[in-house]
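User: Hey, quick favor. My workstation is busy. Could you predict this chain's structure for me?
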Amino acid sequence: MEKGMANTTKAPVENKMGTMPVGPLLASMAVPMMVSMLFQALYNVVDSIFVARISQDALNAVSLAFPLQSLMIALGGGVGVGMNALLSRSLGEKKQDQADRAANTGIFLFIVNALVFAAIGLLLSRPFFRVMTANEQIVTYGCDYTRICLGLSFGIFMQFCFERLLQSTGRTFNAMITQLTGAIINIIFDPIMIFGLFGFPRLEVAGAAVATVMGQIVAATMALIMNLTINRDIHIRPSWIRPHGATVREIYRVAIPSTLMMSIGSVMTFTMNRILISFTEAATAVFGAYFKLQSFIFMPIFGMNNGMVPIVSYNYGAARPDRMRQAIRLATGAAFCIMLIGTLLFELVPQVLLGFFSPSEEMLSIGTVALRVIATHFLLASYNIIAMSVFQAIGNPMHSLIVSVCRQLLVLLPVAFLLSLTGRLELVWLAFPAAELMATVLCVIFMRKTLRRADAVMAARGAQ
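Assistant: No problem, here it is.
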């Protein structure tokens, strides 16, 4: 035990994740996160809606910046998953020292990530956009946006960190409050900073970035205060925020595959934009609009995952397979229902959805076909998202990585490229359902293998 922790660590108390009925427990933990994720999706969409009123070049700039933002989210999300899995499992095993080390070491790793991305944003923004397009207006808008979002990335990384600590100990309502506050600040200040309302300067695309960073910093500050004042399951001390070799290795054992899995999305988005822009710049605008719109469907499921993962990890650590499996079944059913609603919206009213982005006739024509084709994979994705979160929660992150690599790099991009050679843009969108079908096959196989292994580990632990 480390000196300093010995005098402050108290005897562990059973967390609600091991005692509360699973259905109400999942609802109490997941619903707040789903609501907050909906607001996250809302302010992402609001950014693009207001930016689109400047010009299609402005919308394209924000869309082309998405891979860099995705990479930032991937690193933050990956470390968050690794930290949460170790922390929740440690609490389930009644290892308070290990839980505290996970929290404090995690904070250190988030700080390092923030410094790395600040350097990327300030030094590499212009080279990144010049690779994507020769349109100087798009390059200028894009650099304005990414230099602020990445240069001040400590806001999003600290928000990730302190909200994940609240979530991993079952305090998802508090995490919801911080996320909602950040989202509301973003939504309010978006039009003010973009168009220069109420005496503020007109910053255009840069204004969207400023509003985003403002919301992140406020949310991170609130989450830190909540961890210090009401989160009794962990102990944060400045002197403990440092690397701890064994803890870093355990966090990154889960975080690296998870980060790579999410980073693959950045590679996919970057490459798809290159494929689509070869047809027309309107196609990249459609792709950007699609990602904003689909976040309304996917983000609530990700929020439910944030509520499910600590329950699965805790009960896996506590050797309670019945509670673990029930949480997985309930989450899968809820995800299917959410995706069904999303599928119906994308299939029935794609023109209405695209109308929020002030589309040109070309963008509307391309987008209507794109949304209908892509949405055919949503129901399959509902199972795959839950399955990959289960792999991470109980220590099999490589399964998630394999699925993501196969889906996005080995199927989606090659199929999209081959279909682009036909010269028919409408065929390129078929790569999405093709990739998801392959991912479903892998997820079914890996889920069976993962649950069998988990049952064996829990049985052995229970027999001790």
